[in-house]
Amino acid sequence: MKEAGIGRTLTEETKNKIRIGQLAHMEAHPDDVGWKRNHHAKGPSYPEIYWKTILDNHNISYEAEYGVGIYSLDFALPDKMIDFEVDGEQHYNYQPTMDTDARRTPHLENLGWEIIRVR
Question: Among 34, 35, 57, 115, which one is least packed by beta carbons within 10 Å?
């Protein structure tokens, strides 16, 4: 197993180098960001379809899956800088997603975005 690299533990320094490299790649190649390739692999969720219908029925102009740097905004009103997020339970009970949101929200707010979250 050792020769195959299975079960190898990475140092924090190595993990940090990998993270920095991944972030640099995402910034340099925004069309290759993972969420753009994988987010809707199974199609939009029922809540996303529901809220899309609501927005459409009220003639609210928005852009779905609007990219801001490395982040994707579910429904963005770019001219008003409003981000409308439809959050599944993973945003409230899955620590990696919660950690991402803890970085994402202040970053977007610092850029001037207002974030509206619907559970």
Answer: 57
pTM: 0.64
Into which CATH architecture does domain 41-118 fall?
Answer: 3-Layer(aba) Sandwich (3.40)
Give residue limits of the domains in the chain: 41-118
79-100 burial code (b ≥16 CB/10 A, e <16): eeebbbbbeeeeeeeeeebeee
